[in-house]
Amino acid sequence: MLLCRKCIPIILVLLRFWASAMKVAAFSNRQFRLFFIGVFFAVQAIWIQRVTISWLAWERTGSAGFVGLVAGLSLLPTLLTGPFFGVLTDRVDIRRASIVTNSGQVICITVLALSLPWIGAPGLALAALAIGIVSSAHHPVRMSLGPRLVPTELVQHVVSATALNFNMARLVAPAGAGLIIAQFGAPVALWVAVAFYLPMLAVLSQLRPRDLPPRQTRPFFGELADGFRYARDTPLIRLAFLLTMIFATSARGALEVLPVLADGAFERGAEGLGLLTAAAGGGAVVAALVKAVGVGAVGARIPLAVYAAVMGGQLAVVGMGVAPVWSVALLAVGLAGFCSTWCGVSLQAAIQTDLPDALRGRVMSLWTVAGFGTVALGAFAIGALADWVGIGAALVIAGLAGGLCHLILITWGARR
Questions:
Q1: Which residues contact residue 257 at a Cβ distance below 8 angstroms, ignoring those fewer than 6 apart?
Q2: Going from the N-terminus, what domains does the chain have, and what CATH number goes with each?
Q3: Backbone angles phi, psi at 390, to 5 degrees
């Protein structure tokens, strides 16, 4: 609790910075302001449910491998079904699709909360998989809806502001979830997540996104192939996807096994998990705030700062593995969160700036495969490796391997 009180001045400074970010051009649009408010609560729910399910996996099995499995199952469907939902996103009413996917999240969490007294490890894995399937549909819908609420020249501001929202929740919600779990139990945390989805459902009825331009509908798999070809044949998008895949697998995969670091390595329990996740969120919020006020907004290109951030993120993962004390672990996780968000927002903004609305759902569904689906592979691998060699060594191996792959890719890109 003392640590929480010491964090209050820092949070107040971040909130003042957040208020200044709210003055950017995108917030002159009423629809985007409503969308931003609804998403503010919805992303709190996302982080609460993720921390709670991750903690349940560790609490009920004590297995790092199972924590990685549950994290992976909640993300793996994006790798397999995300592109198909991307095609559907470009075909359906985007507002109604958002209502369906947000409602699906509520149903999954409600069923899990009601069944917790009887559910075992297999049931928890099935719940994570169900949430992952709904999320694989939700990601391309969410990434397509915001940009279609504003004029095209404001799309980059929308991407940065939405990332700010997501990462403000990443700072606040995990610490809150850890305290709720410690004081009241996991079921209460899940019911809080359910309640936080309701404002988004209320806001969606007020939104009127921009219609797609008229086009002739092609066969489903032909449109799916169009999205793949556009991403493959656009050098900027191709490089952004490769950078994201490596970083997501190694660095963001490491952030999915924080329960093992919190309790397995430092014996800090659910509150420790909340603090670690909030540290990642704190670093992420700083990056998102800086991006939201326009720093590094370079349009459709990848700046040098992104290459520095991907290498910094890999070094942070190594730091998590070799951290001798709790404070160093918190700092390393915070740096990993900063680098993750800086890279994610910069690369997504570069992709979305000149992306045609008619292809947005398909291309951004592939982005979620690169940015979210591959996290599942990293979580699986790091969790399994931690059971074999320990969490510290597993994180060091992940960070070094990711850094080497990034060096090869950056060198290759510079020569082209």
A1: 64, 67, 68, 71, 379, 382, 383, 386, 391, 394
A2: 29-207+219-415 (1.20.1250.20)
A3: 100, 155
304: its two tokens: 């040098």
Q: Which of 147, 154, 155, 139 is nearest to 43 (CA)?
A: 139
Check: CB of residue 242 under 8 Å from CB of residue 374: no
Alpha carbon 315 to its chain centroid, in Å, reads 20
DSSP state of 118: T
Whose structure tokens read 């790798």?
79
The DSSP symbol for 298 reads -
Q: Ranked by mean pLDDT, which of 75-79, 172-176, 296-300, 310-314 comes out on top?
A: 310-314
3-state secondary structure of 296: coil
- For residue 401, give the nearest of 329, 341, 313, 276 by alpha carbon: 313
User: Which candidate, 291, 299, 302, 306, places its Cα nearest to that of 354?
Assistant: 299
Q: Are 320 and 336 spatial neighbours (Cβ–Cβ below 8 Å)?
A: yes
Q: Which residue matches tokens 């020249």?
A: 153
CA dihedral 103, 174, 375, 197 (to 10 degrees): 10
The span from the CA of 386 to the CA of 63, in Å, is: 9
- Tokens 């996740």 correspond to what residue? 277
Place of tokens 């297999």: 122
Residue-level pLDDT at 170: 64
Q: Report how far apart, in Å, the C-alpha atoms of 100 and of each of 141, 198, 328 are.
A: 10, 13, 42
Cα-trace Rg, the chain: 20
The answer to pTM > 0.90 is no
Give the other-Cβ count within 10 Å of 300's Cβ: 15
Surface-to-core class of residue 229, CB atoms within 10 Å of its CB (0-12 exposed, 13-18 middle, 19+ buried): exposed
Closest CA to 386 of 229, 232, 291, 259: 259
Taking only the tens place, the pLDDT of each residue in 28-77 is 778 888 888 888 888 889 888 988 988 888 888 888 778 878 877 887 78
What's the length of the chain? 416
What is the full DSSP assignment across 389-414? H-HHHHHHHHHHHHHHHHHHHHHHHH
- Record the tokens describing residue 365, joined without a space: 């569904």
Torsion angle of alpha carbons 223, 357, 309, 415, nearest 10°? Answer: 60
Residues 6+ away with beta carbon under 8 Å from 404: none
- How many C-beta neighbours within 10 Å does residue 170 have? 28
